[in-house]
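Need the bound structure for nicotinamide-adenine-dinucleotide, inputs here:
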Amino acid sequence: MKKILITGGAGFIGSHVIRLFVNKYPEYHIFNLDALTYAGNLANLEDVAQAKNYTFVKGDITDETFINELFEKNQFDGVIHLAAESHVDRSIHDPMAFVKTNVIGTVTLLNASRKLFAQKQKENKSFLFYHVSTDEVYGSLHNENEFFVETTAYDPQSPYSASKASSDHFVRAYQNTYKMPVVVSNCSNNYGSHHFPEKLIPLCIQNIRMGKPLPIYGKGENVRDWLFVIDHARAIDVIFHKGKIGETYNIGGINEWKNIDLVRLLCDIMDKKLGNEIGTSQKLITFVTDRAGHDLRYAIDATKLRTELGWEPSVTFEQGLEKTVDWYLHNQIWLDNVTSGAYQEYYEKQYS
Ligand code: NAD
Ligand code: DAU
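Answer from helper R.:
Posting the output first, comments after.
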């Protein structure tokens, strides 16, 4: 049985990757390593928690002794690394937390992986380190006809993207220097269930529910390229199994939206679902001070992933957004527990 370590599995994207791998690959044992920060929530994984091929490990990727022991004990065949501080606004207030987890945490995992890889090589066994990164490392696009491709030069603009760019560079340096097999993917904005409501889409869903203002930074002109989270998890599966060692794959939905247009669409979907007159929720839209250094536009060209590995998104944006809204409306307890912080107290008692 292959042992796969997935880091950050209690978070938004990680929980979807864990669910996919645990259900699709009974021949793998999936280890979920997560520190359960404010963004980690084991309620995201209640449906797979009892699976025979799944183990949760509470731990911090920056804790070198703990990570080395975990790797020595379990001799993983592969690592899929998602654990990170992920929110741009938080990185503006506290960059060091991002340096610690995203840079030092990644290098700590790389060092443990390097030792394990050396051992596996002697035994003629394979090993892969898959690093999950973001399109934000490429910076901000200003020309409508431009798209991020895998060879676009890095130009990170926020402390978050600078920390992710740094981690990407370390991953590639380990491939070049120590010949450790790695693969990297850079994905655009995800949306879907279990998304922490500090990010635009779940924040707006929650605020519409509560009748609270919908804060739009600046004029709402910034553009993001949105991908359904399950399609990101499917892409990670394809890249982990079929990706070429040492390569980078961009993942995106060719689905660009100005923030203001997206929030208006969301308001209309919510009005229909809640039985409100159309236009009710749009009245909550409130323009607020812009994010410092706010990137104007991200847009991914995912041709390489589509043509070389045959990946395609499984849903349209309209379908995905509707599924997302339905999930939040059927899981209001999840949303209330997350916004009140109750989920953290519960799991802290279980795992302290
Ligand atoms: P998230 O914030 O929802 O989850 C991050 C998870 O990592 C949480 O469960 C948290 O507890 C865990 N974690 C944080 N610090 C840790 C540490 N020191 N040790 C162990 N675990 C720790 O993030 P997400 O949105 O699911 O993003 C996952 C990954 O995907 C990140 O690497 C992010 O950069 C990348 N990414 C995200 C998006 C997006 O739109 N959300 C898009 C592209 C790439
Ligand atoms: O592009 C991939 C990235 O997408 C990931 O790497 C990040 O982890 C993820 O958080 C996301 O970053 P963004 O900054 O694009 O996502 P966020 O949901 O925070 O914001 C989306 C857009 O909406 C952005 O232009 C800022 C704007 N915004 C956001 C919030 C939270 C608002 O106008 N108001 C808000 O309250």
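Comments: The domain at 2-194+227-256+294-315 is CATH 3.40.50.720 (Rossmann fold). The CA atoms of residues 218 and 252 lie 25 Å apart.
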